[in-house]
Write a structure and sequence with these properties.
It holds the Pfam family Sigma70_r4_2. Keywords: Sigma factor, Transcription, Transcription regulation. InterPro entries: RNA_pol_sigma-70-like (IPR039425), RNA_pol_sigma-70_dom (IPR014284), RNA_pol_sigma70_r2 (IPR007627), RNA_pol_sigma70_r4_t2 (IPR013249), RNA_pol_sigma_r2 (IPR013325), RNA_pol_sigma_r3/r4-like (IPR013324), WH-like_DNA-bd_sf (IPR036388). The chain has 178 residues and is mostly helical. The protein folds into 2 domains: 90 residues, RNA polymerase sigma factor, region 2, helix turn helix motif (Rna Polymerase Sigma Factor, Chain: A, Orthogonal Bundle); 73 residues, Winged helix-like DNA-binding domain superfamily/Winged helix DNA-binding domain (Arc Repressor Mutant, subunit A, Orthogonal Bundle). 74% of the residues lie in helices and 0% in strands. The radius of gyration is 17 Å and the shape is globular.
Length: 178
Amino acid sequence: MNELIDIVVRARHGSKDDFVRMIRMFEKTLYRVAFGMLRSDEDAADAIQETIIAAFRQIHQLQEPRYAQTWLVRILINHCNGMLKRKNQVIPLYEHDTIIASSPDQPSEDKLDLYHAIGLLGPEQREVIMLHYLEDMPLKEIGELLQLSDGTIKSRLYRAREKLAMLLKGPVQEEGML
């Protein structure tokens, strides 16, 4: 943790090498969040690139170095949401090939079903499920990141778990489900 803080402090003071080190420390997290929201490798790469550019320009605004990951993920989520709004993109209901080809650790059939079910959730529920379960973020940190109360986060998680349980139990109805 101290190493991260040192890297972030040096990056805030203009060290480009340390900024790159900081980004590399969080690149897997950034990819998983971007892909989970956008469901496309190309769109995820674009969102991450825009996030890195914005973070580089705004690194001086990062108040607390230990929250660098939270800060980067918040910028990324904003870019992903902006991309979804601009494109009026509909989240694909089923993309076996994309998920298999792009997942960092080649998911089993069970994981594939889970990723598919997560893709069927609404954006707000998908965000909290991914951050809490796939990125192991505590509820309080998710609340700070999304600027929502703990109660709202818990409520979204509860509803998302209910929908996931329903989706994973039976055949998926593609319309009118959510």
